[in-house]
Design a protein that fits this description.
Radius of gyration of chain B: 15 Å
Shape of chain B: globular
Helix content of chain B: under 10%
Largest interface: A-B, 30 and 26 residues
Number of strands of chain B: 11
Strand content of chain A: 35-45%
Order of helices and strands of chain A: EEEEEEEEEE
Number of helices of chain A: 0
Distance between the termini of chain A: 30 Å
Low-confidence stretches of chain B: none
Helix content of chain A: under 10%
Radius of gyration of chain A: 13 Å
Mean pLDDT of chain B: 97
Shape of chain A: globular
Structural class of chain A: mainly beta
Oligomer: heterodimer
Distance between the termini of chain B: 39 Å
Strand content of chain B: over 45%
Chain lengths: 108, 127
């Protein structure tokens, strides 16, 4: 089991805002990074650090962190945002990297 | 173009061995830590192993510790994963990913991220 907990599935109406969360004790000291994965494709980094977007990632993607929870927010979700989203950070037992279980985002 | 290309996957019997390679291009390979991440069929991402830029720091997930060995050759811009005692549960697509890290001075938070990924190579462990 992962030490970073994500909701398995979330849905959002086209054009609306959705927040995907990731919970874990390590998030009180470490920022999460967020990855988007579409079927048959490799993961793609969308958010890292406090709230940084790699080049080419639309500004509708943003990140935040509070207490033991990291959040990925998509403001004005588009059909192409339908994908699996994974958080990644350090875990509380010493492993330098661990992924959350993933959240399947459906855009209605 | 920044690129990672994995190779070496295939079908192997339980208990067998396999060596994966990841060829890097388009960036200064020796300046970055590197990672192996895998994804079993229909499952989520699982971090497997990380190696620092100079190979000084190496980490493994508990699930592969003692069976897998990560290494790199900075002169050849290549990352490797030697896998022994393979099990059915090691069946997965294996991705290599470039890592980078930073520290936020204002919040005292550290963060690590994987910003370049290969397309993956498939490992199937079956008799």
């Amino acid at each position: 089991s992962s030490e970073l907990t994500q909701d398995p599935a979330v849905s959002v109406a086209l054009g609306q805002t959705v927040r995907i969360t990731c919970q874990g004790d390590s998030l009180r000291r470490y920022y999460a990074s967020w990855y988007q994965q579409k079927p048959g494709q490799a993961p793609l980094l969308v958010i890292y650090g406090k709230n940084n977007r790699p080049s080419g990632i639309p500004d509708r993607f943003s990140g935040s962190s509070s207490g033991n929870t990291a959040s990925l927010t998509i403001t004005g979700a588009q059909a192409e945002d339908e994908a699996d989203y994974y958080c990644n950070s350090r875990d509380s037992s010493g492993n330098p990297r661990v992924f959350g279980g993933g959240t399947k985002l459906t855009v209605l | 173009e920044v690129q990672l290309v994995e190779s070496g996957g295939g079908l192997v019997k339980p208990g067998g061995s396999l060596r994966l390679s990841c060829a890097a291009s388009g960036f200064t390979f020796s300046a970055y830590s590197m990672n192996w991440v895998r994804q079993a069929p229909g499952k989520g991402l699982e971090w497997v192993s990380s190696i620092s830029s100079s190979s000084s720091y190496i980490y493994y997930a508990d699930s592969v510790k003692g069976r897998f060995t990560i290494s790199r050759d900075n002169a050849k811009n290549s990352l490797y994963l030697q896998m022994h005692s393979l099990r059915a549960e090691d069946t997965a697509v294996y991705y290599c990913a470039r890592g980078d890290e930073n520290y936020d001075l204002l919040t005292a938070f550290y963060y690590y991220y994987m910003d370049v990924w290969g397309k993956g190579t498939t490992v199937t462990v079956s008799s």
